[in-house]
Amino acid sequence: MTTREDCAALDAADPLAAFRKEFALPDGVVYLDGNSLGALPVRTPERVRRVVEEEWGRELIRSWNDAGWFEQPYRLGRRIAPLVGAAPAEVVVCDTTSVNLFKVLSAALRLRPGRRTVLGDAEAFPTDLYIAEGVTGLVEGARSALIRPEELDRHLDGDVAAVVLSHVDYRTGELLDMPGITARVHAAGALMIWDVCHSVGALPVGLDAAGADFAIGCTYKYLNGGPGSPAFLYVAERHLAAGPLQPLSGWFGHARPFAFEPGYEPKPGIGRFLTSSPSLLGQAALGASLDIWERVDLAEVRAKSLALTDLFVSLTEDLDGVEVATPREHARRGSQVALRHADGYPVVQALIERGVIGDFRAPDLMRFGFTPLYLSYTEVWDAARQLAEVLESGEWRAERFSRRGEVT
After folding, report:
1. Are residues 272 and 289 in the same domain?
2. What's the CATH code of the domain at 385?
3. Parallel, antiparallel, or unpaired: how do β-strands 359-361 and 365-369 relate?
4. Last residue of a domain, one of 251, 269, 294
5. Which residue in the list 70, 125, 130, 252 is annotated as catalytic?
6. Among residues 33, 95, 169, 195, which one is catalytic?
7. How far apart are CA 174 and CA 327, in angstroms?
8. Is residue 125 annotated as part of the catalytic site, yes or no?
């Protein structure tokens, strides 16, 4: 059994340990929910203050040009591109994950005229399901079909226009084979859309290498952009000259916005996927976090992520009433561990009261996210010990934990 002293030795040798000081972490808390909302980088308040007080407060409208506000969606996209294995001109930061999925899914249907089926994972994060339902509802004869990834091959027929899957399952942390699945989808003549919300910043993502067509992702989880921070989208270069692909033809995506023309002509390149003015305060916060990510070795992030999750699994797999729902194989695991427990909700609440913050997903999954930039091995050991004590003591049965509610 690994001891706390063993974990302290791992911390002393950790090549990522220096990044911990880049984040504002409250004392007495072991934060295992970075897969839902990342911690605050210490540079973010100053960056946002500068935009508010100087760029907006003093320079006013001149900042659209002088501070580069117009170029911010592209600039941030170029900075995210290496994190998802994309070329700089294939990524832009804008809008929300849901809005961006609407745009790229609409584009995929336009690129596959005559095909009317969109396949999605029946257990995906609900926004992916709802948006697919909404988009297909706007196209006569189109339909959204829900399957499980392991059933994909028998559903890939000549009517499938696009497949939408999450790279990492938000519930169990299962990592899908991006290159293999993309190749199979292409062999059937369909287009592949990846949701990388739970993988960007947690492990190397290779969109170009896998041959992906489109991708969408958020920046408030492992990228630490802050609550409600802007999302991003990826479009493979080969699709960027195909005409006005996306239907949200707003002013910011016009080729000549200041010509104020009545007809719409899309910007060249990735700019055609812009719709409206950027959320500049949110983008400022994201920029502060990306300052950190530009100094990070993703291979080291992945190695530590696997070591942290291995450690947590080994310390919790034999606890009474617990079943590990996350794949044990490294090639099939993201950066979280999901444990099944019949009374998972009150157990998580009892842990939170002890300062170990995870979360719960119905009906029985306790989720624990592992963020290598600011999480230590000793904290993982401590969290596992607290979970063991909660289960052994039965304190989760207390009345204050019995009321069902939402855990973010």
Report:
1. yes
2. 3.90.1150.10
3. antiparallel
4. 294
5. 125
6. 195
7. 6
8. yes
The answer to whether 236 and 247 are in contact (CB under 8 A) is no
Question: Does residue 221 have an active-site annotation?
Answer: yes
Is 56 labelled as part of a ligand binding site? Answer: no
126 is in an annotated binding site: yes
Q: Is 275 annotated as a binding residue?
A: no
Locate 384 and state its tokens: 């596992």
What domain range is 9 assigned to? 4-16+297-401
CB atoms within 10 A of CB 68: 12
Share of the chain above pLDDT 90, in %: 95
pLDDT tens readout for residues 41-75 = 999 999 999 999 999 999 999 999 999 999 999 99
- By the 8 A CB rule, do 191 and 112 touch? yes
Considering the domain boundaries, does residue 33 fall inside one?
no
> Pick from 265, 294, 323: which residue ends a domain?
294
260 labelled catalytic = no
What pLDDT band is residue 244 in, cutting at 50, 70 and 90? low
Q: Examine the residue annotation and report whether 370 is marked as an active-site residue of this protein.
A: no
The answer to whether 195 is a known ligand-binding residue is yes
pLDDT digits (tens, 9 = 90+) for 212-241: 999 999 999 999 999 999 999 999 999 998
This prediction has a pTM of: 0.96
